Each structure stands twice: as C-alpha cells, then as structure tokens.
Amino acid sequence: MDRISKFWGLHAEPPKKLRIFLTLMPFIVLITVYLAASDYRHRQNPSDKLLPTVSKMYDSMKNAAFTKHKRTGTYQLWSDTGASLKRIGIGLGTSAICGLLLGLHLGLLPGIRGLFLPFITFMSIIPPLAILPILFIVFGVDEMAKIMLIFIGTFPIITRDIYLAVKKIPREQVIKALTLGASQFAVAYRVIMPQIMPRLTDTIRLNMGPAWLFLIASEAIAATSGIGYRIFLVRRYLAMDIIIPYVLWIVMIGFFADWGLRKLVHIKYSWYLVSGD
Amino acid sequence: MIMDDLRKKSLLFFHNVYKVYDRKVVLDDIDLAVGSGEIVTVVGPSGCGKSTLLRLILGHEFPTSGLMLIEGKDVGLADSTRGIVYQKYSLFPHRTVLGNVVEGPRLSLGFFERFRRKQELIDEATHYLEKVHLADHLHKYPHELSGGMRQRVAIAQSIIMKPKILLMDEPFGALDPGTRESMQMFLLELWEELGMTIFFVTHDLEEAVFLGTRLLALSQYYTDDRGNDKNINRGAKIVCDHALPQVAQSTVVKETAEFGQLIQQIRRDGFDPEYLQHAKDFNLNHPHSYQTLSEEECRQ
Are residues B201 and B123 in the same domain? Predict the structure, then answer.
C-alpha cells in the first residue's frame, strides 16, 4: 500500500505542526503581499493613501482610541464601537428572543403553525435592505430604524431555524413528557425549550454576519456615530489608514463574539455536541 | 353477563375498537380485557398494528371507533396513568441520568415547590436508580450510557410515576442478545418486586413467551364470514391469547420442548400467511379473553 499522504487526498493525515502551518499560511501570504505592495507604492509616492503603512495605521488608530475628540469630547473608536454594539445587541437580542418564542410555538402548536408559518415564510423572502427606506420613513433616522432593520433582517431566519429544530424533536418526547405528568405549558417551556437553547445559540452565531451587514448599511445611510458611519465618513478623504483598522476591529469583535458563544455551548450544553443518533 | 363483569374488574378494557387510516383498516374489532399485575406481551407480523395498539392505550393516537377504558375511565390523552418506554427517544438528551428520573415528579410541581422539595425528589429518584443498578452513574448524560443502561434509566423514569400500566414498545429491540437476556431477567425481577402491570410489544416471539404472563398475537392472517375476496378491507385481530406461567423463570426454560412447541404454535397461528383460521375458531384460552364478533364477521 502507498504511504498515506500528509496533505493530498481523502485520507490525508496532516501532523500537528503541519496543521498549524497550514492555518497560518494564508494569513502570512496576505500580510506579506500587502506589505510588499504598500512598500512598493510608497517608494513611488511617499504620500500614497491607498495602501497605508502599518505605522500610519497604528498612529491613526492610536489617535482614534486614546485622544479625546476636539469637538465632541469623546474617544472616537470607543464611542463608535459602543453605539454599534448597542444597536446590534438590541436588534439581534430581541430577534433571538422573539424568534425563539415564535419558532417554539410554530413547531409545537398546529394552530399557530397554520396561522403564522406561511406568513413568516413570505416575510423572510423580502430583502430587508429593500425596505430600509420604509423603515427610515416610519421610524425616523434615529436608533429605532437601525434596530428594526437588524431585527427584520434576522428574525424570520431565526424563527424558521428554531421551528425546524423543534419539528425535528421526536413526537415521542412530547408524549413521554405528558406521561410524566407535564401540562402542555410544561411540555413547551420545561421539556422542549431547554432542548433547543443550544440551537438558538448556534443560530445567533450564524446570524451575526447578516446582523453586521444590516448594521453597517443603516449606519452608512444615516447616523452620527457607529463603526459603519465612520468607515463611510472617512471614505470621502480616502482614509484607508482608518478604514482598514476599523474593518479588522469588526473582524476581531465578531471573532470573539463567535468564540464566546461557541464556548458557551461547549460548557453549558455539552450534551448537544455529542448526542443525537 | 361475562362482559360487564370483565369490564368492572379489568384494569384495561377494549370493546369493538377499530383503527382506520385513510381507508385502510389497521385494527379490526379488537376486544381485550387485562387484569392488573399481568405482563401482557404482544407479538405479530410487522405492520400488523401492534405499535398502533400500544399508541392507542398511550393516548398518542385515538381509535376510529370503539370503547377503551383504563380502570373504568375513558383512555383519553396521554397522562401519568400510563408510563412508556420506547426503543429510543425515551430519555431527555439534555438531562443527566438523575435529571431524567427526577423530571417526572418535578414536572407536575410549581416553581417554588420544586426548590423546596429538591432534596426529597433527589432522594426518591436515587432510590429508584438503585433499584435499576445505576446509582454509580447519576451524573452522566444519556449519550454516555450503553443501550442497556439507557433502557434501565427509562424504566426508572417511568416507574417513579407509579403508572397504572407500563407500556413498552420493543424496548430491548436494539440491544445485543446478551444484554437483551439480562434486561429480560432484570425486568422480571423488578416486576416481581413491584407488581406493576406491563404491556409489552415485541417482534421477538421467544422474548414474548419468556416474559409474558399472557401472550397476545395480533395478525391480519385470518378469515371470517366476510369471505376471502381481495376487496375485503380486513385489519388485524387478536388471533390467539395464551395464559402463561405466573412466575418469573430462569432462562433455562427457553430450552424446553414445551417452550418450543408454544412458539411453533404461535408462529403458525399468527405469522403464517397461508394458515387462515376462522375468526370464531381463534385460540383464545386466557380466562380474561372475550370476543364479540359482528354479524358480518360471523353469520349464525
């Protein structure tokens, strides 16, 4: 028999050191290419704005994070981050709670399913960005419209995902709970709901992407603070030295939120990852 | 009259029960009376409706027509008068062994009661888990247990509620032969100790004869005065009803000639599509057995 390959083919078994190397490889390539290109452009034109040097980005960010803004009296990076996180937190949070409750009832109660499922399916097809103008008209250009956009963008998907998760729980579990003396209320909230909490956490993780999209879209159009607002504001001056670090900052926040939720499932719902036939 | 008498003293009483899906008759005029303390085992060819019969008693499905009583009361929706052990899905995956067994007593309690009586409930559940020899595994999750252990947790989870009748739907069907046999012995020991009534559906004839104090075969392979035309929409009936020894026996009994003969007889009566008995000639020799045939089924 041929020796099992370390990298190629279905049966490849990369050793640990190689796996670490493989993980880092694309990042190293990206950074190297950027640095080379930036260096090349700066040699041509020392005041190049398109590919700023690392030191330039560092200075701009230090300024944004640790210098009080002259006019507003706030630290720009932190006030932007705070405003954005508040919007995304409230928007995604309410849509998670509403999605959990509606999805649970859709999955368990045939009456509610008949009433809402076709409607939710219809709603989830509407592209949220298409109704953004309506939201601004109805809710004004304040916080409410931005939160509503995130809510409307993620709520139908979370609801449908929870609904499918509830439908997948075998009917036997419901009957079993009834034979243990559970009321209909207890079946829903004390037997089925705890079983879909880890799925809810997963759904939130997956919906973070769309939530950021809607947040930045709404901030780009009308806002006075926020990460999306800042990126679109400085675009006018071609300030790549702000835009690139801000994007990396979003990636970092997203990565840690995702990591935190994943850890939560590991610790609190250890049964979820391994059970299931 | 015999029927009224049976109706009064039986734990479970069926009279002219039919179950029809779309137009297909599954259960065809079932009459059944079960006294308390019995282990009733139900066998039959696959698709004959044994699980449907069990789900009717459970309250998971409802009869198309007919009377079904538990202790004189209409069977109705699933509730704590019956317990159920399935082949799988009996356990809640998000609860530990202890959590699964405590769940029953807890579910019917209010929010504050649950906290006030926490220790008492845990003690009770631990007591039942000792009975099923699982006191060492209290904090494991179901996915960490072997098949046999899982079924023992499921049994403890059900009997802690003290149901009037414990329903078991092929509970040992997914276990390997060795574990299966030890689970059979274990169930009999538990039955001798607690004296519960068990309704046990299985596709394994040997298991049914070994465990049961009463054996029912449900089958669609029979004939009656409706004739043998292809268009006759016939469902399964109880084609034989045997009284078996009332004491738990060692597994050695499985080797005896009598045991083998009975299995052969049931196999012929219930499982042979060529062997069609007339409904009035069924071998219904259990003292609680009764049968009311309709005019169509048996013309005088």
Answer: no
**Final residue before a domain boundary, out of B142, B162, B182:** B162
Closest CA of chain B from A100, distance in Å: 18
DSSP collapsed to 3 states, chain A? CCCCCCCCCCCCCCCHHHHHHHHHHHHHHHHHHHHHHHHHHHHHCCCCCCCCCHHHHHHHHHHHHHCECCCCCCEHHHHHHHHHHHHHHHHHHHHHHHHHHHHHHHHHCHHHHHHHHHHHHHHHHCCHHHHHHHHHHHHCCCHHHHHHHHHHHHHHHHHHHHHHHHHHCCHHHHHHHHHCCCCHHHHHHHHHHHHHHHHHHHHHHHHHHHHHHHHHHHHHHCCCCCHHHHHHHHHHHCCHHHHHHHHHHHHHHHHHHHHHHHHHHHHHCHHHHHCCC
Q: Are residues B54 and B114 in the same domain?
A: no
Tell whether B158 and B175 lie within a shared domain: no
pLDDT at A277: 42
Residue A260 pLDDT greater than 60, yes or no? yes
Give the domains, in start order, of chain A with CATH numbers.
1-35 (no CATH), 73-274 (1.10.3720.10)
Q: Could A271 and B141 be called an inter-chain contact, meaning their C-beta atoms sit closer than 8 Å? A: yes
Of A179, A186, A276, the CB nearest to B78: A179
Tell me the pLDDT tens digit for each residue of A22-77.
999 999 999 999 999 999 999 999 888 889 999 999 999 998 888 888 777 788 89
Mark which of B116, B139, B162 sits at the end of a domain.
B162
Q: What is the pLDDT of residues A88-134, one digit of tens each?
A: 999 999 999 999 999 999 999 999 999 999 999 999 999 999 999 99
> B296 in a domain, yes or no?
no
Q: For residue B299, is it within any domain?
A: no
Pair (B193, B144) in one structural domain: no
CATH number of the domain that residue B236 is part of: 3.40.50.300
Q: CB atoms < 10 A from the CB of A67, how many?
A: 11
Question: Which residues 101-120 on chain B approach chain A with CB closer than 8 angstroms?
Answer: 103-105, 107-108
Q: What is the pTM of this model?
A: 0.88
Structural domain harbouring B171: 2-81+165-284
Q: Kindly state whether residues B123 and B169 are assigned to the same domain.
A: no
CA distance B182 to chain A (A): 24
If contacts are CB pairs under 8 Å, which of residues 150-179 in chain B contact chain A?
Answer: 157-158, 161, 163
Same domain, B155 and B187: no
Please identify every stretch of chain B with a pLDDT value under 50, giving residue numbers as ranges.
none
Closest-CA residue of A relative to B169 is: A172
Q: How many domains does chain B have?
A: 2
Q: Which amino acid, one-letter code, is at A216?
A: I
What's the pLDDT score for residue A195? 94
